[in-house]
Amino acid sequence: MNKLLSLCLAVMLLPLAVSANAKFVEGKHYQVIAEQASAKPAVKEYFSFYCGGCYGFEPVAQSLARKLPEGTEFKKVHVDFIRAASPEIQNMLARAYLVAKNMGKGDQVTMAIFNQIHRSRVPFVNEADVRNLMLLHDIDADEYEKAMRSFSVRGAASQMKKEQEELSKSRVLSSVPMLVVNDKYKIINEALNQRNLENELQELISYLLAKDA
């Protein structure tokens, strides 16, 4: 069954891959950062709620996530190296995002956090500030507090930190937003047509997914 799904995905992406093959160049539009691709197709966005560029990119990120081929996961990985808030607050925001995502409100809460920081310019000072924002989006207080303390959410936040440290150490991750396809290909946003960024990203992502299909 898995082989059949992989074959179907490859056939679906083939026309895009053929046209993109002549357009996208390794070392210019994308960088190979690992020998082995992820077991399952995935696109990761490394971002920070305190990054203005990430705030501007968020509508594009959400649109790209909706248009991915079936079976391809879009994962957001929050980083904490932007010194606009304490590591504790940034960890809380990362966990709050994970809780919201698990409750089916990831996109909604992500934009709310971005808007509070960048549009309203109201800082998150403590745990109560994060909790209050979540409650405004119809998330039950008891469920939220239980989830924030859960092993799964804390583990996922720790995994974000681990990935950040590993990619920073290897000098792959130095700025955000950054997109990585299949844990193997880093997209170089600067080389893409900024006036047609979403379409170019969608085309490049499809091309890179097809390379490992």
TrEMBL record:
Tree of life domain: Bacteria
Signal peptide: 1-22
GO cellular component, one term: periplasmic space
Entry's Gene Ontology molecular function annotations: isomerase activity; oxidoreductase activity
PROSITE patterns membership: THIOREDOXIN_2
Keywords assigned by UniProt, alphabetized: Disulfide bond, Isomerase, Periplasm, Redox-active center, Signal
Chief place where the protein resides: periplasm
Cited SUPFAM superfamilies: Thioredoxin-like (SSF52833)
S-S bridge residues: C51-C54
Localization terms from the record: Periplasm
Domain Thioredoxin, chain residue ranges per copy: 11-144
Family listed: Belongs to the thioredoxin family. DsbA subfamily.
The protein's name: Thiol:disulfide interchange protein
Organism: Arsukibacterium ikkense
